[in-house]
Structures are given as C-alpha cells and as structure tokens.
Amino acid sequence: MSATEFSGIAERRIEDANLVRGVAALTRERIERVVKAVTRGEAGARLAVYHETCMRCGMCADACHYCISHDGDPTYSPVGKMEQTMWKLLRTGGRVDPDDIYGMAQIAYTECNLCRRCVHYCPVGIDTGYVMSLVRRICHRLGVVPLYIQDTAHSHSGTMNQMWVKDDEWIDSLVWQEDEARGEIPTLRIPFDKEGADFLYSVIAPEPKFRTQLIYQAAVIFDQAGVDWTMPSSPGWDNSDMCMFTGDYEMMGRLKRCHFEMAQKLKVRRIVMGECGHAFRSVYDVGNRWLGWKNHPVPIVHSVEFFWELLTEGRIRLAKKFEEPVTIHDPCNIIRGRGLMDKLREVTHALCSNVVEMSPTREHNLCCCAGGGVINCGPPFKGVRLAGNKAKADQLAATGVHTVVAPCHNCHGGLEDIIHHYKLGMHTKFLGDLIYDCMEKPGAA
Length: 445
Ligand code: SF4
Ligand code: SF4
Hints:
mainly alpha, globular, 51% helix
C-alpha cells in the first residue's frame, strides 16, 4: 500500500471551531520545531523502534473497530492512521503544512480510542495507542485540540476537576446524597476528611454533575459493608484526567500530584476508585510514569477489585440475584490495562443468575468507541463514534440479552449511544447498581 493511497482524512473533514482557530495560527516553522521537540526530545527510542519495525503488513487492520466497521477501509486501520500522522511527520522531519495538522488532529483525537486492541494483533507489538497519544501531544503543543475536550482540560486547570464543579457544589452534592441515603439507612454518614481511614473513595466529576445516584449507592454499599472509609472535601477528589487525552502532560502531572497528596494528607491506607476506566489508566499507568514515579505513592484499587474483595470476604451478603440475562463489556483500561477480567466475571456471576459472554471477549473485547477522550470531543464527532462502532453494535445484538454490565463511565456513555442509534433495545448497568439492588441491608429503616 503506498502512502498516496491514504487520502481518507481529507475527504471526511469535520468542522471544529478550535481546530480551525488553532490551525490558523500555525506556521511551518513552528510545526517543525514542535514535532522535533516531541519526537526527539520527549519520545525517545520507543517511537523510533516502532517506526523502524513497522512492516506496513496490515495485520493490525482486523483489530480495529473503526476499520472493521468501515468494511476494512485501510485509512481507518491502525497502520493507516499512523501513516497519515506520525509516520508522515517522521518521514518529513515535521515539514508539513498547517492544514495537514488539522487532519492529523482529527484522526488522533476522534478516530482512535487508544484502546490498544491492535497491540495484540501486531507481530512486533507496536502500540498504535501510544503513537496516537504522541500525535495528540504534538497537537496540544501546537494549540490544535477539539473544542469540547479542550474545555474539559481547561476545567481541570481551573478547578482541578473535569466538570467545572465548584468546591461548595462538591460538598453540597455529598451532603445531598447523604441526606437522601439517610431516608433508607437512618444512621448512614458520608465521612468527610477522616484521617487514617482504611480507604479514600474517589470518583470522577461526572458523578456529582449528573450521576449523583452512584455516590448514594456507594455510600449505602460501604456503610452496610461496615468498612472504614472517607471522601475528601477539597480538590483532589476527582481522579479523572482529560489532560492525559489532550496531550497536556504538564497539567496531567499536576492532577495526579493533587490526587495522591490528598490521600497522603489524610493518611489513608489506600485509594478505592469508582467504576471508571480512563481515570484508572491515568493514576495507574500514564500520569504516575510522567511524574517519574515507579509506583504511585498510595496503593490504588479499582472498584471491580474492591467489590470482589467485599464479596469474597463476606462483607457484602446478597439477598437475591439479578435474574434477567446479562452480558459483560470488558473496559479496555482495566482489562487490557490491568487484567481484571477474571475478577469482573467472578463479581458478575455472584450477582447475576444468567451471564451470556460476548464474542470476542476479555482482552480481545471491542472498545465502546467512547474511550480515549473520543466521546469528550463532543457533538461534532458523535457520528464518527456511531459509524466507527457498528462492529460493537453487531457484537451486542448477537448476545440476545437486554442488559450490559460495564464497570466504566465512558463505556456507559459510548454503549448507550450505540444502543440508541442501532435500536438494540438494551440498557447498561454498573456493578454498583447490581450490588445496591441485590445486597442485604440490615440497617435499612
Ligand atoms: S501489524 Fe504492526 S507491523 Fe504490521 S502494519 Fe500494523 S503496526 Fe505495522
Ligand atoms: S482504536 Fe484501538 S484498535 Fe483502533 S487503532 Fe486505536 S488503539 Fe488500535
């Protein structure tokens, strides 16, 4: 396949105000300078090895849901995306036109979920997600980032959370959910800033913003399990990280530092995270490494693992099981990224009588197409996500069930859009939804 055949992105350009504004301010000299600074100054040997070892064999094409969903169009294949972006930048030494950067940004931010499925299919293990992250890093340093996701990154830098939640609104949300939950469990408290607690519970900003019932449910689960927990009242409570996805690594580092320093200040034994995949990637894999931390300074546990502990230790006892057949969606960041596939299944089977596996599944599962910050690029690119994951719609429909269990916020957003668009007649559930519904609540009024 020659480079000249890769004309796809020019034909599918989507108007985004911030991409237009950013590209208008570029010069060829500035592009070349930034490309060299990132590819030679930040990336090092890993990128060079990937570039030199990629055989353009195309074996990665069948791994990518965008490529599968577009009938094998090579411009959507992992190698096709690298060819139109990073390989072109390396081949030219960064001597490209400002207009080229528009297309590269559109590919890197909206046509790759950084899901890393393709790594498993490449005979030499090239991580296209890593390469696309570096393209995003270049675009960030050039000021060419889609408007909606840039807004979330600005929110992080202004408020230390993703959704412009003010400090008093955060506390109000927790007190509100505590009040609500006390209607069900009269003695329940959400403990603020409890020094020395066994764990700090951290969530992502969409929870206080528009999924507050998840805070309610977590409070009931922890209270009735009798665990020693706390939530912070000040910045550091949000573990999400859109800066990791825009390529603003300096801000990503500030966020991680704030998060872990909060846990250290409260002298908790560990952090338990809510059901989010990308946040886990940012604290467990990317942000900590950017800061040069070999290990994060406070142990961190994803809620799939924590729920598994509560169930296997008998701290949660079940009053019933969920009887309707369910299927399991494996979120990329905690399955390919952390290997929680067995624990996810043990928890789901403990809660549900009838589990129907998707095909393929576990580390081979297809991404929801929302991850990697793609859903955060907003309405202009929603159609790209829906068309780019017909493969997921087919996979969901083939299960024949109506309930999808997915322990990740982004996956819920992506799957709900796919379910609605392809009229699949399904709905999504978090593990917390199922545990809350099925557990014994001895303290209930
Ligand atoms: S499978 Fe690997 S070596 Fe082959 S084209 Fe894809 S990235 Fe390159
Ligand atoms: S979306 Fe996933 S499978 Fe496709 S290129 Fe990106 S990392 Fe690879």
